[in-house]
Amino acid sequence: MRYKVVLNTLGIILKYLGVLMLIPALVGFYYSLHDPAQFPSVMIFIYSFLVTTSVGLMLEYTNRSSDEFRNRESFGIVAFAWLLAAIFGALPFLLSGMQPVDALFESMSGFTTTGATIMTDIESHSKALLFWRCFMQWLGGMGIIMLFLAILPKLAVAGRQLFKAEAPGPTEDKLKPRLKETAKILWMVYVVISAVEFIALLLAGMGVYDSLTHTFTTMACGGFSPRADSIAAFNSPLIEGIIVFFMFVAGANFALHYRLIYVDHRSLLKDSEFKLYSFIVVSSTAALTWTLWRTGMFEEIGTSFRYAIFQVLSILTTTGYATHDFNTWPDSSRMVLVMLMFIGGCAGSTAGGIKVVRLLLMLKYAYRELFRSLQPKMVRPIRLGKRVVPEDVMNSIFSFIILYVLVFMTSTFILSELGIGAVSAASASIVTLGNIGPGFDLVGPWSNFSTIPDMGKLVLIANMWIGRLEIFTVLVLLIPGFWKE
Prior knowledge:
Blueprint: H1 3-20, H2 22-32, H3 39-61, H4 71-89, H5 91-95, H6 100-111, H7 127-142, H8 144-151, H9 153-157, H10 159-166, H11 179-203, H12 208-219, H13 237-250, H14 254-262, H15 267-270, H16 272-294, H17 301-316, H18 331-343, H19 356-374, E1 383-384, E2 387-388, H20 391-417, H21 422-433, H22 454-468, H23 472-475
Antiparallel strand pairs: 1-2
Helix pairs in contact: 1-3, 1-4, 2-3, 2-7, 4-6, 4-10, 6-7, 6-22, 7-12, 8-11, 11-12, 11-13, 11-14, 13-17, 16-17, 16-18, 17-18, 20-21, 20-22, 21-22
C-alpha cells in the first residue's frame, strides 16, 4: 500500500473536519450570551479544532504524493478516515470529562449513526456538546467520504474506488457519469429534505434548537436526541407523525428521491426494493399493532398503531428513536422488532443493517433454486428491475451475509465471556453492527451502554465501524497482503 497517498488524503480530511468543529463552538457562544455557564464548551471546541486541524495539516504536508489511488489505497483511506473521524471527534467529549473509551464510543456511535450512548444524564451537558453529538450523525449519514468527494477535487479523481468502498449497498447507483457530480446531487437532496423536515418540526411547535438537532438525527437515521426521553419528551402525535414520515424517507434510496423529483415521477412504483421496503413497513406495523392491542399493552387500537408505526420505522431504518420502552412489550412484539433489526433500510439510504435489496435478491435466488430442483437445466437469471444481476454480485451478497453473521456471533460470544447476559450480549451486538442504537434488556431504549465493561465497549466500537462500512472495507485490513506494496 502507498502510505503517503493514504496519509496525505487523511490529513486533508482531518483538516476540514477540524474546521467543522467551529460550528458547535458558535452554537456554544450563542447560548453563552444568555447563560455564562455554557462558555467553557466554546473553548472545548476551539481546542478540538486546533488539535484536529494541526494534525491534519501535518499529515497533509509531510506526506505529499503524486501517486494515483488504487483499490488498496481507497479501502485504507475510507476505513481510516472513519476511524480517525471518531478518534478526533471524541476530543470534545474527552475534554468535557468523559473517560477515553466512553468518549470514543460516543463519537463512533455518532459518526456511524448508530445512536447507542453511554451518557447517563444527557440534559446536564452543554448545548454545544449535544449539538456536536447530533451534527456528527448528520455528517456521517450521507457519508464522510461522500461529503469530501463532493467538495475536494483531489478525491474526485479517485471517486469510483472511494465511492465503492463507502457506498451502502451491494451495487453502485450512479446518477451522473462523474462520481463527483453524483456525490453533489446526493448531498443536495439530503440537504433539501433536511431543510423541509426542519421547517415542518418548527411549525409543529418544536424550538429551533430541538428542530435542528432532531432533523440531523432523523435524516441520518441516527437517533441521538438532546432530550433524555428522546421523542417521548414532546408527547406530540403531530411531531411523531412528522418524524415517522422523514424516517421513512431517510430509509429509502436517496438516488430514488432524486429520480422521483427530476427524472420520473413514477420511479417509486417501479423500484422493486422500495416496494418490498414499503411492504415490510406496512406488514410489520399491522402485526405489531395487532399484538400490542391483543395483549392489552395499550387499551385502544389507535394508540397501539401510534406506537407500532413509530417503532417499526425507528428500528427498520436503524434510527433508534423511542416513544415507549419497547423492552417491556410482549415477546411476540419484540420478536417483530428483532427481525427488523437484521433487515435495515434500503441501499443508498442513510440506514444501516443488511439492507432490503440484499434480502430481495436472496429471496429471488431462493425462488430460482426451487424451480431448478424441478428443472435442473433451466437458465433463469436473477433480475433487479430490468437489470440482470451478475453472479459475482450474488457471490458478494452471500459473502457479506456470512461475514455479518460471523461478526455478530463473535462479538456476542466475547460480550458473554465478559459476564453480560445472553439477551443483552446478542442485542448489543446486533444493534451496534446494524447501527441501530437501542436494544433489549441492559441496553434497552430507556437504558444505555454505560454498564458495559471497557473491553466490551471496544468490541462494540469495532462493530459500529465494521457495520457502517459494510464489513468488507474494514475486514480487508486483516489480510496481511493488504499492507504490502
